[in-house]
Amino acid sequence: MIAQLRKRHVYIWCLLAIFLPVAIIAAYAVIPAQVTDRLFLRELPDALPEQLAAYETEDIVLRLRGDKQLPNKQLEIILAKPLVSASTLVYVTNEAPKGELTSQNLIGILGPKRVYRLTVPATISSKPHIHITLYDALKAKTIHSIHLQL
Amino acid sequence: MSANYQPVLWNRQKKIYDSLMAGGIALYLLVFTSLNALFFPESTAETLIIRAFGTLAFLMLHIILLIGPFSRLNKKFVVLLYNRRHLGVTMFVMAAVHGVFSIIQFHSGGDTNALVSVFASNTHYDSFIHFPFQILGFFSLVILFLMAASSHDFWLHNLSPKVWKSLHMLVYLVYVMIILHVMLGVIQVESSPWLVGVIILGFIALVSLHLAAGIKEVRKDIRPHKLRKEGFVYVCNLEEIREKRARVVTVGKESIAIFKYDGKLSAVSNVCKHQNGPLGEGKIIDGCITCPWHGYQYLPENGCSPPPFTEKVATYDVLLDGKSVWVHPKPYPDGTPVTPVFISKLQKI
Question: How high is the ipTM of this complex?
């Protein structure tokens, strides 16, 4: 290697030695508090007995289920076709969200075509309106916005 | 080294190297697939392909970037440098499988063209946390394609070594973009401390080895020289040069290799015309200085490649005073014959 080229290599690696640790730390620091991958349920919980509300299209079926003995409710999602989004997050709120969705409202993640049963906390399911947002995490955009009335 | 262009100049060493590489790739894919089936049974086939080939390409990029400093620090690794291009082209193919499947999986199901979707689906270009990490992978793949497509000596000759080397040094930009692609992509979703640990370990290994190799080489460049009145520069004692090997001295911008062979001394430029390889780290084979990187050859007396090859390097005057070897740092034009200095029997003792 010629001296000029060697010098160029040394400068590049000195720059990388400064820039990359900063970038890695910064990216690590902004990881969401509730990491979505851990929301992926491997075991399917049993369906709660009572159907409280439903929404149905050719591609997707949503059913809100409950049990009088339990404070939390259950959102059953049946994917009849795979979603276009490869990593879809499920958020529940009482009203249609106006700003950015927070991790407090995140209840699950959808992947391949199958049945999902996600827990809807009593703080939200105790009210008469539930708004469900299916959000494409990779493209950072909402793909379904569904309002259910109990 | 070839007088005409051939796709690959196969030899036994390259066949062994490529067989080991293919075996390593097959083993990695088998182990990755088995572990994935065990720990992530819910993964789809597409996800498995994307992850297996993505991690494989990432690992291969690290190996490629480590070969350079390893070969500077220990000459035993030069053999890996010799065949690094095959590894680079294969790494591009692995990265392309990852990229193509990712675009199909994540961008082909909508009503927008899949390639347009890569750029238009997430437009948070002003945000660090939501930055569209896919485009970092996309541009890395474009650079890797250019590097793989231009890896043959045909392009080296036609683009010139300077342009070719500049293009291939974009691999460092690829490394930065891939680190960010991983950190802003999969790490944000999975937050695996193991994966982050592996990235940091790889980074530490790359930076420390590159800097260690660079410092070792720069020290040689800035070593002070004893000057004589006639402009000659002291190189070393005659006994410090092994038979059919060289001693390298750097004076200003000139890096000169002084070879000892068959009772003679000759000096040529240390920089191979092929890819700026260090001729002084090679040896004389069949009467020719042979570059350790890709085997380009030059005659020590005139710096010319033996016919039918046409490469030429600069030559220099050598002086032997007792057992002290001196070289004049002013180069003769490439390929100029210079009478070698003969070592007398007395000097050999």
Answer: 0.72
